[in-house]
């Protein structure tokens, strides 16, 4: 009988050690998600910001106002089409511009990257490929994490109609204003259309769509913040 | 199982401690670099985009 109890002791001890190990792994994973991913995101954002600022400086040295004829100050009122310098999407994972949303906090800003795969969203808010670029007619759509990875859109639910969303690119700075916030299913691809809700329609306005998950720690739905362009100012050349 | 692992480590106790620590750090590095990034997309708060 002593042999059996010895085996039982080993089994119980091993079982206990496995459970404690599993518990430690869960804690480590939680720390990775809640702390480490934020740390990595902060580092990535810092690097992206440096790159962007260098690009802005370089652009201000090489461009004179006369050389950018299509970049003129325009004010969009209702349906009037706004034309600005066409922007070409940069490679995936590289910076598109700096997104600033005052409602989300004093001086809140993040560098926006091209692409919405996990690897790109880990760097910061991502621009949906194939949707309009900032300031362009169509639907400029951006997705951002609401929890983990720097959680840029953690408080997207605090946006109200009239709030400003500013996008600074190398060529120009665009100001959008929030119109509505709604919750949709994760499959609601119509919100990304050039005319949201109307696939195939020809766009005439420059619109903004911000996407994140809802509730904050789940993904049952998506929170969609919609807005429209109200101002474009080209970057001043020859500083 | 940790007892058996400890007994198999070479040398006197200080050396065993060092090797055990290095193994633990190595396991942590593997988790952070490979296992956790692989698990992350499966969690709900990673799914923020819209797909048909």
Helix and strand layout, with pairings?
The complex is a heterodimer of chains A (239) and B (52).
Chain A: H1 2-62, E1 74-75, E2 95-100, E3 109-114, H2 118-121, E4 126-127, E5 138-143, E6 164-168, E7 172-184, E8 206-214, E9 221-234
Parallel strand pairs in A: 3-4, 5-8
Antiparallel strand pairs in A: 1-9, 2-3, 2-6, 4-5, 6-7, 7-9, 8-9
Chain B: H1 2-8, H2 13-39
Structure description:
The complex is a heterodimer of chains A (239) and B (52). Chain A contains two helices and nine strands, in the order H-E-E-E-H-E-E-E-E-E-E. Chain A is of the alpha+beta class. The longest helix of chain A has 61 residues, at 2-62. In chain B, 65% of the residues lie in helices and 0% in strands. Chain B contains two helices and no strands. Chain B has helices at residues 2-8, 13-39. The longest helix of chain B has 27 residues, at 13-39. Chains A and B meet through helix 1 and strand 8 of A and helix 2 of B.
Q: Can you count the helices of chain A?
A: 2
Order of helices and strands of chain B: HH
What structural class is derived from the secondary structure elements of chain B?
mainly alpha
The largest β sheet of chain A comes out as:
8 strands, mixed, barrel
What is the general shape of chain A?
elongated
Number of helices of chain B: 2
Global mean pLDDT of chain A: 89
Element order of chain A: H for helix, E for strand: HEEEHEEEEEE
What structural class results from the helix and strand content of chain A?
alpha+beta
Low-confidence stretches of chain A: 66-73, 76-84
Largest sheet features of chain B: none
Form type of chain B? rod-shaped
Strand content of chain A: 25-35%
The total beta strand count of chain A reads 9
Rg of chain B: 18 Å
Strand residues, percent of chain B? under 5%
Work out the number of β strands of chain B: 0
State the low-pLDDT regions of chain B, or none: none
């Amino acid at each position: 009988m002593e042999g059996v109890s010895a085996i039982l002791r080993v089994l119980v001890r091993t079982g206990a050690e496995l459970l404690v190990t599993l518990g430690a792994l869960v804690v480590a994973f939680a720390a990775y998600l809640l702390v480490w991913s934020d740390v990595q995101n902060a580092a990535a954002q810092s690097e992206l910001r440096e790159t962007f600022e260098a690009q802005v400086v370089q652009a201000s040295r090489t461009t004179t106002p006369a050389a950018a004829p299509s970049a003129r100050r325009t004010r969009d009122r209702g349906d009037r089409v706004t034309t600005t310098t066409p922007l070409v999407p940069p490679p995936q994972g590289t910076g598109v511009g700096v997104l600033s949303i005052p409602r989300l906090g004093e001086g809140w800003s993040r560098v926006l990257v091209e692409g919405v795969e996990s690897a790109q969203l880990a760097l910061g808010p991502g621009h949906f490929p194939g949707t309009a670029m900032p300031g362009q007619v169509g639907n400029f759509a951006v997705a951002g994490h609401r929890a983990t990875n720097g959680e840029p859109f953690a408080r997207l639910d605090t946006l109200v109609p009239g709030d400003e969303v500013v996008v600074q690119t190398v060529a120009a700075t665009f100001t959008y204003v929030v119109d509505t916030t709604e919750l949709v299913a994760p499959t609601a691809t119509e919100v990304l259309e050039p005319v949201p809700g109307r696939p195939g329609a020809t766009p005439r306005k420059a619109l903004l769509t911000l996407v994140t998950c809802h509730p904050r720690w789940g993904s049952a739905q998506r929170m969609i913040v919609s807005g429209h362009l109200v101002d474009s100012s080209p970057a001043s050349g020859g500083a | 199982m940790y007892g058996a692992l400890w007994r198999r480590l070479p040398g006197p106790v200080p050396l065993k401690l060092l090797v055990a620590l290095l193994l633990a750090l190595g396991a942590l590095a593997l988790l952070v670099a490979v296992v956790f990034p692989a698990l992350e997309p499966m969690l709900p708060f990673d799914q923020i985009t819209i797909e048909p």
